[in-house]
Design brief:
With 493 residues, this protein is mostly helical. It folds into two domains: 412 residues, Up-down Bundle (Growth Hormone, Chain: A), CATH 1.20.1250.20; 54 residues. The chain is globular. The two termini are 27 Å apart. It is found in: Cell membrane. This is DHA2 family efflux MFS transporter permease subunit. Keywords: Cell membrane, Membrane, Transmembrane, Transmembrane helix, Transport. It is a multi-pass membrane protein.
């Protein structure tokens, strides 16, 4: 017996209904099993954004990437992922969320095979673009499915906490697993590992998620809006990456920046006039929604930039191999995962999302402050281990931001709010990698020209980049203090 369509959205809820003779308790367990499937899919997709980081030197050596071209191994995935999330979320509303989830997992898994088989830079980057498209389809609908599955505020809070835990730990664990796979089997296996996981999650989704018909494709999807936001994001990242060569104030850089702003402004204008916008602008009128998304973009830019740069520092300056790099990052993964899973929900219930968010941000800023004093040969225990502990604050900040970002959205805007939240996460990651990597490379080049040896020049570049990252986090704290408001207890979840 299926449930009727939700009057708020016009789509059937994704909650599996209790069949004849099925008690409420098994039906409740079935929802948690479904959540486990969604978390596994999210873990695979988020993990893939970071698992490649420790494999970058091996990929560069094997495929012949240039230093600037190598960043597109990461950015091709994140830009397509982030740029297509809003369009993918709308497709979920129209075609049914389970169908879009399954399509995304299939595309992602097939593209992972192509990544692992790549023999040229162009082939790998193209496959990474396809991976990003599949990841967008799957991720855009996941949070909306969870919100529909868990209608009780307490259960929904625990479910979102578990989902946020997946996001918080996936990026960190990716580097550990990436190191082990790269050294043990070769860089190709950081992509091949997705194949069995993707197959298992597809089987689980078919068995545990109810099929919802959606609103129907005749209601229309704003394809032009999707093209504008994706092109604008891609051009923005390209503008930042090429600034290292041409200069931040050069005519070329300024022209590209103007073009990217024009595309993004065109997207906003399109959303104001489209019959079926990807992002109804009324969503952005909710203070906590737009505030949480801005704070998240700054936080994720700093955190993902950290993950890329610290892995490169360990290998290029300290001489760690891929496995040693992954193991050195393991305390950070444990701190983030443990805090997110065990501590964050309890603290949010007691103190509220805003307070917990600020606590997490302060912890991460403290970690960045330590990184600005990075040396080329300092002991791991005193120079890096404290950072790994302090960045555990990310495990507090991200679940709190998830709750804040969804707290003010209307029921019929839940898909758009979810898509926006995922979009800013991916855009923040792409921009953080591009910007912090560019600052590090530019500073290192200047120090080489001044006669410093390679290790010291690279370390100087990384210190500057981490200083910029600390500035992003301080800005996030100021925004959180000025913009975000406490969520009333009865409206949490």
């Amino acid at each position: 017996m299926s449930e009727t369509a939700s009057p708020a959205t016009g789509t059937a809820p994704a909650r599996p209904a209790a069949g004849p003779g099925e008690t409420a308790a098994p039906a409740s367990r079935r929802r948690w099993y479904a959540l486990a499937v969604l978390c596994a899919a999210s873990l695979m997709i988020i993990l893939d954004g970071s698992i490649v980081t420790v494999a970058l030197p091996a990929i560069q050596s094997d495929l012949g990437f240039s230093p600037s071209g190598l960043t597109w191994t990461v950015n091709a995935y994140m830009i397509t992922f982030g740029g297509l999330l809003l369009l993918a979320g709308r497709l979920g509303d129209l075609a049914g969320r389970r169908r879009v989830l399954l399509a995304g997992l299939a595309v992602f898994t097939a593209a992972s095979v192509l990544c692992g088989l790549a023999t040229t830079p162009a082939m790998l980057v193209a496959a990474r673009f396809a991976q990003g498209a599949g990841g967008a389809l799957a991720s855009a609908v996941s949070l909306g499915i969870i919100v529909t599955l868990f209608t009780d505020p307490g259960e929904r809070g625990r479910a979102i906490g578990a989902f946020a835990f997946t996001g918080a730990t996936g990026a960190a664990l990716g580097q550990v697993l990436g190191g082990l796979l790269t050294d043990g089997f070769g860089w190709n296996w950081v992509f091949f590992i997705n194949v069995p996981i993707g197959a298992a999650t597809m089987i689980g989704a078919v068995r545990l998620l109810a099929d919802d018909p959606g609103l129907g494709l005749r209601r229309g999807a704003d394809v032009l809006g999707g093209v504008l936001v994706t092109a604008g994001a891609m051009l923005t990242v390209y503008t930042i990456v090429q600034a290292e060569r041409h200069g931040w104030a050069s005519a070329r850089t300024l022209a590209l920046a103007a073009g990217s702003l024009a595309l993004l402004a065109g997207f906003v204008a399109r959303q104001a006039t489209a019959a079926a916008p990807l992002l109804p602008l009324r969503t952005l009128r909710v203070r906590n929604v737009w505030g949480a998304n801005l704070v998240q973009m700054l936080l994720v830019a700093a955190m993902f930039g950290f993950q890329i740069l610290i892995a490169l520092y360990m290998q290029q300056v300290r001489g760690y191999n891929a496995t040693e790099t992954g193991l050195a990052l393991l305390p950070g993964a444990i701190a983030i995962g443990g805090i997110s899973l065990v501590v964050s929900a309890r603290m949010i219930n007691r103190f509220g999302e805003r307070t917990v968010l600020l606590t997490g941000l302060v912890s991460v800023v403290a970690g960045y402050a330590v990184l600005t004093r990075l040396s080329a040969d300092g002991p791991y225990v005193t120079h890096l281990l404290p950072v790994m502990v302090l960045i555990g604050g990310f495990g507090l900040a991200l679940p709190a931001l998830t709750g804040l970002g969804m707290s003010g959205a209307r029921d019929d805007d839940a898909g758009a709010a979810s898509g926006l939240f995922n979009t800013t996460q991916q855009m923040g990651a792409a921009l953080g990698v591009a910007a912090l990597s560019t600052f590090a490379a530019t500073r290192a080049a200047h120090l080489r020209d001044d006669g410093l040896r390679e290790a010291l020049a690279l370390t100087g570049g990384y210190r500057l980049a981490f200083g910029v990252g600390a500035g992003l986090l301080v800005t996030a704290i100021v925004l959180a203090l000025l913009v975000l408001r406490r969520v009333p207890t009865e409206k949490k979840g």
